[in-house]
Amino acid sequence: MSHEVVQPRAYVLNAIALAVLMGLTVAVAFVDLHDFFHVALPLNAIVAMTIAITKAILIILIFMDVRHNTRLTWIFVAGGFFWLLILLLLILPDFISRDWVRRAEPWPQPIPVVTIDHPVAPGATHDSPH
Amino acid sequence: MWTFLAQEIMFFGGLFATYLVYRMKYSDAWAAGSYELSLWWGGFNTVVLLASSVTMAMSVWSVRTDRQKHLLVYLFLTLALGLTFLGVKVIEYSDKWNHGLVPGSYFNWHGNPLFPGAAENNVELFFCLYFIMTGMHALHMIVGAGLLIWLIGLALARRFNSENYLKVEITGLYWHFVDIVWVFLFPLLYLINRAV
């Protein structure tokens, strides 16, 4: 927990910044960025998520006061979001490649068992002792 | 509380991962579903939650500077804003029900010429995720509101001061986390392909 009290000014400024970013998100959502940048990327989604991540960082650092917290707290916060990053980044190759690989073939038919007729001594039966 | 919040990241992370996979697979249906959501209510709710984060932070400041009256005012304001958020969610959900957009036997999406590639099944899937994600978020808000009521009770009994304020600060952490989840939910659900 922090030792010095954060002044309300910081909270008000943070709120204004967050409100501006929110307005920006909504405004950009109405513009198809592919009209300006011709790349094969979901630009609107990328911009929206970048702004959302910025807002989250501002909330974490200032409202949750993590900027004054110990390194241990930083590790917890970073660890949580790092976990999320791993989840999202690794689930993508899984699902994107689902249709790439040919479906597994069924089990092959069992190989027919070949019996070998051993020659038997005269008088003995064919019954194997085993 | 941070350990709990890390667990919450895992909880919501699973939902976000599901969303991500299906959004990539059925992008037209996702855009069509997002189109049906009311941007006004969503935007209003975002502003409400943002304001409630400010009042929550201010209540932590109040308790750390021994301002008992300010503490009560800010806690009440935070609770009021949280309940406003929940009220708007009730309005939105009943709106969805009236338009036949709740998944189940009464789901009926009439199609949208702006999104020709959207199939009704996939739009229903979008709404499944919409209700689950915002529903889970609203449940967290209800728990947060309960925590605030508990804090208000304690604050009325003058149990908090600049030496003893941890409960307020920890509830603040929880409340800000719920705000962060909404910060991600809003663009992901309400702002898909609004440029049509």
Task: Please give a structural write-up.
The complex is a heterodimer of chains A (130) and B (196). Chain A has helices at 8-29, 43-63, 71-96. With 130 residues, chain A is mainly α. The radius of gyration of chain A is 33 Å and the shape is elongated. Helices cover 78% and strands 0% of the residues of chain B. Chain B contains 6 helices and no strands. Chain B has helices at residues 2-25, 27-36, 39-64, 68-98, 120-156, 166-190. Chain B is elongated, with a radius of gyration of 19 Å. The chains are: A mainly alpha (130), B mainly alpha (196).
Beta-strand residue fraction of chain A: under 5%
User: SSE string of chain B, helix = H, strand = E?
Assistant: HHHHHH
Helix content of chain A: 40-55%
Computed CA radius of gyration of chain A, to the nearest angstrom: 33 Å
Gap from first CA to last CA of chain A: 77 Å
Distance between the first and last residues' Cα of chain B = 42 Å
Helix content of chain B: over 70%
Poorly predicted runs of 5 or more residues of chain B: none
Mean pLDDT, all residues of chain B: 93
Structural class by secondary-structure content of chain B? mainly alpha
Biggest β-sheet description of chain A: none
Oligomeric description of these chains: heterodimer
- Principal-axes shape call of chain B: elongated
Shape of chain A: elongated
Mean of the pLDDT scores of chain A? 85
Q: What's the β-strand tally of chain B?
A: 0
